[in-house]
DNA sequence: CCGGATTTGTCAGGTTTGTTGACAAACGTA
DNA sequence: TACGTTTGTCAACAAACCTGACAAATCCGG
């Protein structure tokens, strides 16, 4: 039940009905392909005569293609429809502190090529390096299809209206206009988004089905920082200034370990990758400097997980304690938003078998009802593809989204 | 940008365009009344010929009425349109531990009559008592118009699909089918909702403008418990099982004061009414029993506020400390959802002048950016009308909401 | 007092859709 | 080969937006 904003509404025109139905057809094909016109009509509960012009328009637009003839027990064989995906390309870029990844992807999410480069310290250099590599990538695969846009995933806050990267704490960048710079350099539309939101989009649009059938979930990433991408009622929740999802800074304790945000006792200060390593080392994250000291050990969460699997009791215990804190923090999301599912990403998700009981215990400790305590928590083992798929989704998803009216 | 759920979509029919535009007209009249057809056409950027049939349909439905002739500098005078409100009634019911309030309201939110009764311990008795009083109320005001429904606000979790009250901790009720019982007894449609959500609806639909022009805000109530009603993108966020908004149980400290939910250190345990009184009395809420002891003193937050105003330093200090905790907890909502505004309701909002600086300090302490730290916090001094207006909105709002398609 | 200018509300005709029902094409089977 | 079944298309109708014209109502200057 949405209120119509009398200052900012979208009037329905003569073509609105068709726009809506065309988009429904498109999404049905995407979901059930290969599928015939007659099948579409049955799923939409309309006569076949309505579907035909919608499909033809989508074919003309280049969104759908006709494929082979299908099988049928009796009667005329249907011509099957597919989403046109294999000759439409998107460049996905994932900027992280450790490295920047590029992927050339088709519209089904299939990867055609991947590249890595060290992330430069200066954002201008990044734009330069990306431009060169994207051009080379597109030249090398020009036969594969046309590229329709670039999706750029960044570890920090974004202003969608202007496309500026407002603040990326791990990179130390502030107020950089990445979108405009890359758009003019490459000559393709650029979509920029925060990493956790992109991961949520990846689940929503290119996922393997763990959030299928749900219209609300939260994707929580544990990495250098902790953040969430939120989907409620089929909508991505971005908040008033695109700052929603920073659950990493809900307090677990007002005077707990120091957090890089400047506060103390944030969930992130208990569960981020440096926090896990510090816990394993028996060090306290009492000051900001202690983060640098932990980093200097060059020990990673992946190392800690490997040692735990090798029988290191201290590593195992550090992970289990972390698991409980993860569950405790998840309870804030569950109590506050009541999503149908929680998806947990990041390196620590690779140790799910080790931490699962503690996560669920922590979650149950602070949730209010049995129903919310039973919210399924699904690990997504660390997979660089997720963020890249999210980056591709930035280009692809808008073409499939519902038109907004009312 | 919403994804169309291929398993649960709403196809557009021949009348969808008109349905959307009719609802837009209705909302424009509601916002700008009195307003002429020609003005509506200008605001919608369509020809006047499109507006006329939409308006006539709404008049026929009984949603609009024509009023007096308007003034005009030159040319023919317009006939002004109004939302038909003064002869359409709704019964608003607010169930609280201390007492249950009834209001007979017209569709503009104007109160025709108010009644109070002590809340019975048994839900069946409540239905009985409500039935008698609602019938009497409607008989007494039968000349004022027809009643179109009952809005029921309860202090607890609700299952909207079945209309059952799942759990109301302060009342000690579990799994009560209030809606069905009241519907059959009175013979009018009953809409049931959690109190914080109803308060958010009151702001959204019948508010005095503090959230006008924003499509996202959180209404946070501080009373026996602490809860929030969330509105994001014009939508009320209810979550997967109508349990969203329970921010009262985000932890401020994992081993803080005991909370009635069974956990420790919840925001609620620092900021609820009993917590404020306990703070003033210098008592710790270490166990569940301590809540009963605090209640036995019969001291209320209103008393504490009065004493603070009278110069009681301990009272003043208790309120200020509470203010900081309120701000600290609000930061979780701001970081997690980034609403455009926060509205604070409950008794403590009546002491806003005393606590404001501490609330803002607490909020700024834990928010990530200047932008989010500057989220406006608007007090709504305790006003029993808010919840009752929210109850009325449960009946009224669905008639004005946007049709859902796509 | 009258004609022109202006604004409002309505209406007829054109266009674009959904909707309905009919029909040819394609296919398997008796 | 005849028949039933299924698919895809098309024509006729209805419902909505859209356009442009027009009558009604009002003010104002002469």
What key phrases describe this protein's structure?
homodimer, 406 residues, alpha/beta, five-stranded mixed beta sheet, 14 helices, 42% helix, globular, DNA-binding
Put the structure in a nutshell.
The structure is a homodimer of 406-residue chains. With 406 residues, chain A is an alpha/beta fold. Chain A has 14 helices and 16 strands.
Describe this structure in words.
By secondary structure, chain A is an alpha/beta fold. Chain A has 14 helices and 16 strands. Chain A has a five-stranded mixed β-sheet, sandwiched between helices. The first copy, chain A, has a five-stranded mixed β-sheet with strand order 14-13-12-15-16, with helices on both faces. In chain A, a hairpin with a 4-residue loop joins strand 5 and strand 6 (111-117). In chain A, helix 1 (16-32) packs across helix 3 (48-61), helix 2 crosses helix 3 and helix 11 packs across helix 12 (352-366). The N and C termini of chain A lie close together (12 Å). In chain A, 51% of the residues are buried. Chains A and B meet through helix 1, strand 13, strand 14, helix 11 and helix 14 of A and helix 1, strand 13, strand 14, helix 11 and helix 14 of B. The structure holds a DNA duplex (30 and 30 nucleotides).
Q: Assembly type of the shown chains?
A: homodimer
Strand order of the largest sheet of chain A: 6-5-4-7-11
Terminal CA distance of chain A reads: 12 Å
Ranges of chain A where pLDDT stays below 50 over 5 or more residues in a row are none
Global structural class of chain A: alpha/beta
Biggest beta sheet attributes of chain A = 5 strands, mixed
The helical percent of chain A reads: 40-55%
Helix-strand sequence of chain A: HEHHEEEEEHEEEEHEHEEEHHHHHEHHEH
Mean pLDDT of chain A: 92
Shape descriptor of chain A: globular
Q: Into which percentage range does the β-strand content of chain A fall? A: 15-25%
């Amino acid at each position: 039940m949405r209120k119509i904003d009398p200052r900012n509404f979208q009037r329905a025109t003569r073509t609105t009905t068709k726009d809506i139905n065309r988009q429904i057809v498109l999404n049905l094909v995407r979901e059930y392909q290969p599928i015939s016109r007659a099948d579409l009509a049955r799923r939409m509960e309309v006569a076949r005569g309505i579907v035909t012009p919608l499909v033809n328009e989508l074919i003309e637009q280049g969104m759908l293609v006709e494929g082979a003839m299908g099988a049928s027990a009796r009667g005329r064989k249907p011509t099957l429809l597919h989403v046109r995906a294999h000759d439409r390309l998107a460049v996905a870029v994932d900027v992280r502190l450790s490295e920047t990844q590029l992927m050339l992807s088709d519209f089904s999410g299939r990867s055609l090529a991947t590249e890595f480069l060290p992330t430069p310290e200066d954002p201008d250099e990044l734009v330069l390096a990306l431009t060169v590599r994207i051009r080379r990538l597109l030249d090398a695969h020009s036969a594969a299809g046309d590229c329709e846009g670039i999706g750029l995933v960044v570890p920090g806050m974004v202003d969608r209206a202007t496309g500026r990267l407002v603040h990326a704490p791990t990179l130390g960048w502030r107020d950089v206009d990445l979108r405009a710079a890359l758009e003019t350099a490459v000559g393709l539309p650029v979509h920029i988004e925060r990493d956790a939101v992109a991961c949520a989009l990846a689940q929503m649009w290119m996922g393997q089905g763990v959030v299928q059938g749900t219209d609300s979930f939260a994707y929580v990433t544990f990495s250098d920082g902790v953040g969430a991408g939120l989907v409620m009622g089929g909508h991505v929740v971005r908040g008033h200034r695109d700052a929603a999802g920073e659950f990493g800074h809900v307090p677990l304790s007002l005077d707990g370990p120091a957090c890089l945000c400047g506060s103390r006792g944030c969930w992130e200060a208990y569960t981020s990758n440096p926090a896990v390593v510090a816990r394993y080392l028996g060090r306290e994250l009492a000051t900001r400097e202690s983060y640098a000291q932990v980093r200097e050990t060059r020990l990673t969460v992946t190392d800690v997980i490997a040692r735990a699997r090798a029988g290191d009791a201290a590593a195992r215990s550090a992970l289990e304690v972390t698991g409980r804190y993860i569950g405790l923090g998840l309870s804030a999301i569950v109590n506050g938003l009541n999503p149908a599912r929680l998806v947990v990403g990041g390196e620590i998700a690779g140790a799910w078998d080790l931490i699962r009981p503690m996560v669920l215990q922590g979650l149950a400790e602070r949730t209010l009802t049995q129903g919310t305590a039973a919210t399924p928590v699904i690990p997504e083992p660390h997979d660089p593809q997720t963020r890249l798929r999210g980056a591709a989704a930035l280009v692809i998803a808008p073409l499939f989204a519902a038109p907004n009216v009312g």
